[in-house]
Design a protein that fits this description.
Order of helices and strands: HHHHHHHHHHHHHHH
Number of helices: 15
Distance between the termini: 21 Å
Radius of gyration: 30 Å
Number of strands: 0
Largest sheet: none
Helix content: 55-70%
Strand content: under 5%
Length: 452
């Protein structure tokens, strides 16, 4: 009995099963809805960004009339984080991350993201999510694979024909491997084609992104095929195999991520944005009181000849800088705590195949935390640059001109991560290691295949 004949037999038997077209049809419907949902979300986000850009341009036009009447006119700017080219694939936690900011050059740092001062660490916010293609891949694709591969060897054991099958000139380990590959090809390849087609239909048409998406789906599907092989090594009855497959799916996809998150929260508690906001407000109020007392006690200084820009403007700017320095330790401590927790979560995801796949899809779609943090860092740098522009006008003691106003730099998010970025490669490597461990475990149990 050759491997080709075994594979052909398995393919014919699976194609005769009426459940296969039902499963694939259901996958088509759910994937199409998920893709539409993701595409609709992208459209809503782009419409909101268009309104923000129009509002910013209106503020810029209205502020032009004040040029020359003040040391500098730096109108309010609202930087935006645009959706990536593969954004419809995975919305992830993008709703919980800020996609716009409020840059006021002479405002304090706490106002940059004032629209999102809500506590992102709140479980209600973390639970926010949408039915997208990533959900179909992470949660539903394993069920389709397990539904067609859970009985790789239990059916023969249940019918009592294992001895007859193994009497043929083929090793038991090779036999179950060929059966798994044949069934996997019949299920995984059509599922992959469905996912790629609906992803492209939703607007995620970046060729490199689609190629990486195919790689992620194949790697994740291979993990579940390896799990089915392991189930086939110890399950003696079809019901046992079905229960084991369902229990392992529940453990790997649902329970393990929740338990690991709870453990990380105990070891590295998330810092509260609400507590930070309260501490910052108290510190700013205290600094403002101290500055008022100092100005009341100081005698007004006069310079001859008088500067073109009044010294009171320079004093106000110095007060802003002092307030920034006062709250800097609070922000630094909060950022350090967030970084420690994020590093713990990044390490934990490598132990959870479903989380690693979700992370890879989020990174591919641009809805991951790293991209959101890069946006916030670029907003902060832009705010500092606006502050420096104001200081330059004070230092040279010459107000801003219309030409300088029209040449003010605009914010544009710099997206440096590609489709096959480092985080995606790490996630794929974690999947490959998990699959290899399952295959090693199945190989070590290959002698059990010969037992009835």
């Amino acid at each position: 009995m050759s491997s080709l004949s075994i594979a052909g037999h398995e393919i014919r038997r699976l194609l005769r099963d009426r459940a296969l077209p039902v499963l694939l049809g259901l996958l088509v419907v759910l994937a199409a809805y998920a893709a539409w949902n993701g595409s609709a979300w992208v459209g809503q986000r782009e419409a909101a960004i268009s309104l923000i850009n129009a509002e910013e341009q209106d503020a810029r036009d209205r502020s032009r009339g004040f040029v020359g009447k003040a040391p500098s006119v730096l109108p309010r700017v609202q930087p935006v984080l645009p959706p990536g080219p593969m954004a419809a694939l995975s919305i992830g936690q993008a709703d919980a991350y800020p996609y716009t900011a409020d840059v006021v050059a002479l405002g304090d740092r706490t106002q940059l993201l004032r629209h999102v001062w809500s506590d992102i660490g709140n479980p209600a916010v973390q639970a926010a999510g949408r039915f997208d293609l990533a959900f179909v891949i992470v949660f539903l694709l394993p069920l389709v694979i397990l539904a067609t591969t859970f009985d790789l060897w239990s059916r023969e054991r249940e019918r009592g024909i294992t001895a007859l099958v193994l009497s043929q000139p083929i090793a038991a380990g090779r036999l179950i491997a060929v059966k798994a590959l044949a069934r996997g090809a019949i299920v995984l390849l059509p599922a992959l084609a469905i996912i790629i087609a609906v992803a492209a239909g939703s607007g995620a048409t970046r060729p490199s992104g689609l190629a990486v998406l195919a790689l992620i789906v194949l790697a994740y599907g291979s993990f579940w095929l390896a799990l089915a092989v392991l189930i086939g090594c110890f399950a003696r009855r079809t019901t046992e195999a079905a229960i084991a497959a369902g229990a392992l799916w529940l453990l790997i996809v649902v329970m393990a991520p929740s338990l690991v998150l709870a453990a990380v929260n105990l070891m590295v508690p998330p810092p509260s944005q609400m507590q930070l906001a309260t501490a910052l407000k108290a510190q700013l109020a205290d600094t403002a009181r101290q500055q008022q007392l100092r100005h009341a006690a100081a005698s007004p200084a006069t310079r001859s000849p008088a500067p073109r820009i009044a010294d009171a403007v320079r004093v106000a700017y110095a007060d802003l800088v002092q307030a920034d320095q006062a709250i800097a330790p609070l922000i630094a401590a909060h950022t350090e705590a967030e970084d420690a927790r994020r590093q713990a979560l990044d390490r934990a995801r490598l132990l959870l195949p479903s989380v690693a796949v979700q992370d890879a899809l989020d990174r591919l779609a641009g809805s991951d935390a790293d991209r959101a943090l890069a946006f916030q860092q670029q907003v902060l740098a832009y705010w500092h640059a606006r502050r420096q522009l104001h200081k330059d006008y004070l230092d040279r003691d010459v107000p801003q001109t219309l030409a300088e106003y029209d040449a003010l730099p605009r914010f544009e998010f710099q997206d440096t991560a590609g489709a096959l970025q480092r985080g995606v490669l790490i996630d794929l490597a974690a999947l490959a290691v998990a699959t290899l461990l399952l295959l090693i475990a199945a190989w070590s149990m290959r002698r059990r295949l010969a037992t009835p």
